């Protein structure tokens, strides 16, 4: 499922006409009907529904929606919130069809008049502005939105809430606060940003008849459970432990043995063939009871933390994961640099590894094997020198720029996790819930991602799958036996069994 910017959506619109001859008014009819079909799931026959109609094509959709619902006997009041001369093009065609069908529209004259209708309404449908919004809302839409947001009605938006930008990077806006949005054709970027996501409420995407084979490709898409089912490698009958990757994890310290233990256990539960933990000797006895299936390499230490530059013990592996619990000492940084430079294998770098990485990004750039970085926004801000605010406002472009500059795969974690390849492809995972907002979750995710990396040739599939498996496990645990409050990262590790069982049984 592609995720689009406003411009990409307009390009699709154009392709529908140019490549397939689908005229705008046809597309509007099918969009409006698809939205109405979706919205009726929330509307009862006795509900009083107000449809607010604006000047552009979003308003045009509004005429189709209002007509469709009126034809089906729903109690609909259509309000046109802009002067008649502003209704042009395809929207004008649909206004005429609406009127010729025997329905009438109320012209907006003052907020007081509209408020009288609002007071009696159960549901407000916002078809005032869509992806064509520019700048802050102007009156009368600004005052209508403000009034509607203050009512205790059910608010539904067509395509996206009026006033909300479709793209990233815009923070200066007011917008309709929807409880539910029916998104047309493809989710817009703003459905995945921290500052704009809440305005959508729940949302669903409806298909409107765009010619999918003729649309210009978009390099950005949602990665969901069905994608995992499609791409998760099947364990062959004749496979042996070597077929599933031989990985080494470097990290842990005397006082921080937990993170690498959790990452290691998550990797084992995610099917890695052979796992070695490279850590300080004195931490091994506390980690090993938790990881009976792993082997251990004791590394040079200084005051309980990893140090040195030895990389010879780390050769011969199919992949390296580094950083979990390794600490922020100078010795750890030296070791990281030596490994990043000297070990030629796919590498995942997380946690303290990311902290140290800032000063050696040029070394990362020179690596021949793929490098995967898994920062949360704070770590990413540290790595890039941007503010967390900038990262959150424009995560898609910040990620893309960074991944291209340093030739890395980037997993920018959050409620919407954005995975970016060095060549700019992006996948978004929205699985998971607030139960994961705890220490240890990142370690578990790293372990899963590492195991996935070792079991497929497609790194983007591996990273998408790892994120979705992690998030879906948390979701099913909080549906069944945990709350978001008590869920621990270690519960997620044990919950992986069920996720793998259900995902693989559904794929056969
Ligand atoms: N494939 C597509 O692109 C399709 C688009 N459709 C609909 O068309 C919408 C896009 O249509 P448009 O490009 O006409 O754009 P909009 O319908 O979003 O609105 C453009 C209008 O809003 C006014 N406006 C812009 N910024 C404003 C502000 N800050 N305050 C007040 N008024 C403002 C402009 O004067 C213009 O008349 C989509 O969101 C969707 O609902 C559908 O009809 C079907 C297919
Ligand atoms: K809208």
TrEMBL record:
Residue ranges occupied by any YjeF N-terminal domain in the UniProt entry = 9-216
Q: Which cofactor does it need?
A: Mg(2+); K(+)
Pfam families linked: Carb_kinase, YjeF_N
What superkingdom heads the lineage?
Bacteria
Quote the record's binding site residues for (6S)-NADPHX.
57-61, 130-136, 159, 325, 376, 443
Provide this UniProt record's keywords sorted from A to Z.
ATP-binding, Isomerase, Lyase, Metal-binding, Multifunctional enzyme, NAD, NADP, Nucleotide-binding, Potassium
CDD domains given in the database record? YXKO-related
As its record notes, the protein acts as a catalyst of:
(6S)-NADHX + ADP = AMP + phosphate + NADH + H(+); (6R)-NADPHX = (6S)-NADPHX; (6S)-NADPHX + ADP = AMP + phosphate + NADPH + H(+); (6R)-NADHX = (6S)-NADHX
* Binding residue positions for K(+): 58, 126, 162
> Per the UniProt record, which EC number(s) apply here?
4.2.1.136, 5.1.99.6
Cofactor binding description: Binds 1 potassium ion per subunit.
- Annotated positions binding AMP: 413-417, 442
Has UniProt tagged this entry with the keyword NAD?
Answer: yes
- State the Gene Ontology BP annotations: metabolite repair; nicotinamide nucleotide metabolic process
Annotated GO MF terms: ADP-dependent NAD(P)H-hydrate dehydratase activity; ATP binding; metal ion binding; NAD(P)HX epimerase activity
InterPro entries in the record: Carbohydrate_kinase_pred_CS, CARKD, Nnr, Ribokinase-like, YjeF_N_dom, YjeF_N_dom_sf
- The reply on keyword Oxidoreductase is no
Cite the SUPFAM superfamilies for this sequence.
Ribokinase-like (SSF53613), YjeF N-terminal domain-like (SSF64153)
The residue ranges of the YjeF C-terminal domain are 224-503
Q: Give the matching PROSITE patterns.
A: YJEF_C_2, YJEF_C_3, YJEF_N
Question: What does this protein do, in the record's words?
Answer: Catalyzes the dehydration of the S-form of NAD(P)HX at the expense of ADP, which is converted to AMP. Together with NAD(P)HX epimerase, which catalyzes the epimerization of the S- and R-forms, the enzyme allows the repair of both epimers of NAD(P)HX, a damaged form of NAD(P)H that is a result of enzymatic or heat-dependent hydration. Bifunctional enzyme that catalyzes the epimerization of the S- and R-forms of NAD(P)HX and the dehydration of the S-form of NAD(P)HX at the expense of ADP, which is converted to AMP. This allows the repair of both epimers of NAD(P)HX, a damaged form of NAD(P)H that is a result of enzymatic or heat-dependent hydration.
By sequence similarity, the record places it as follows: Belongs to the NnrD/CARKD family.
Cross-referenced HAMAP family, in alphabetical order? NADHX_dehydratase, NADHX_epimerase
Question: What quaternary structure, including any partners, is listed in this protein's UniProt entry?
Answer: Homotetramer.
Q: What is this protein called?
A: Bifunctional NAD(P)H-hydrate repair enzyme
Q: State the organism named in the record.
A: Halobacillus mangrovi
């Amino acid at each position: 499922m592609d995720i689009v910017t406003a411009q990409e959506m307009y390009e699709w619109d154009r392709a529908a006409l140019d490549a397939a001859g689908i005229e705008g008014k046809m597309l509007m009819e099918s969009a409006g009907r698809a939205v109405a079909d979706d919205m009726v799931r929330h509307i009862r026959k006795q509900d009083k529904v107000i449809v607010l109609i604006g000047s552009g094509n979003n308003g045009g959709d509004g005429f189709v929606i209002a007509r469709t619902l009126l034809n089906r006997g729903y109690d609909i009041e259509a309000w046109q919130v802009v002067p008649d001369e502003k209704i042009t093009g395809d929207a004008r065609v649909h206004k005429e069809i609406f009127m010729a069908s025997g329905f009438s529209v109320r012209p907006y004259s003052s907020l007081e008049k509209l408020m009288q209708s609002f007071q009696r309404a159960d549901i407000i449908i916002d078809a005032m502005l869509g992806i064509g919004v520019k700048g802050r809302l102007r009156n009368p839409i600004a005052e209508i939105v403000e009034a509607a947001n203050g009512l205790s009605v059910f608010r539904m938006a067509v395509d996206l809430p009026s006033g909300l930008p479709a793209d990233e990077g815009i923070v200066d806006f007011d917008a309709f606060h929807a409880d539910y949005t029916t998104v047309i054709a493809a989710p817009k970027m703003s459905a995945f940003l921290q500052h704009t996501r809440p305005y959508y409420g729940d949302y669903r995407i409806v298909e409107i008849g765009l010619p999918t084979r003729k649309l210009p490709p978009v390099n950005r898409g949602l990665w969901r459970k069905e994608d995992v089912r499609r791409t998760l490698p099947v364990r062959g009958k004749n496979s042996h432990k070597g077929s599933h990757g031989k990985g080494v994890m470097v990290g842990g310290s005397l006082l921080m043995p937990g993170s690498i233990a959790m990452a290691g256990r998550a990797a084992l539960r995610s099917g890695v063939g052979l796992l070695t933990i490279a850590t300080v000797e004195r931490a091994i006895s506390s980690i090993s009871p938790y990881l009976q299936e792993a082997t251990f390499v004791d590394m040079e230490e200084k005051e309980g933390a990893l140090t040195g530059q030895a990389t010879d013990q780390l050769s011969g592996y199919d992949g390296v994961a580094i950083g979990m619990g390794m600490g922020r000492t100078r010795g750890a940084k030296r070791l990281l640099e030596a490994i990043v430079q000297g070990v030629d294998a796919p590498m995942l770098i997380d946690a303290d590894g990311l902290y140290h990485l800032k000063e050696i990004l040029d070394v990362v750039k020179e690596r021949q094997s793929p490098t995967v970085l898994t920062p949360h926004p704070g770590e990413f801000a540290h790595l890039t020198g941007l503010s967390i605010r900038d990262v959150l406002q424009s995560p898609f472009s910040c990620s893309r720029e960074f991944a291209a500059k340093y030739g890395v795969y980037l997993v920018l974690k959050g409620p919407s996790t954005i995975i970016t390849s060095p060549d700019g492809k992006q996948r978004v995972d929205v699985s998971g819930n607030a139960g994961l907002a705890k220490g240890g979750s990142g370690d578990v995710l790293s372990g899963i991602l590492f195991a996935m990396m070792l079991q497929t040739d497609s790194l983007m599939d591996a990273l998408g799958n790892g994120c979705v498996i992690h998030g879906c496990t948390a979701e099913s645990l909080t549906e069944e036996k945990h709350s978001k409050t008590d869920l621990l990262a270690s519960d997620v590790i044990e919950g992986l069994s069920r996720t793998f069982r259900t995902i693989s049984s559904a794929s056969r």
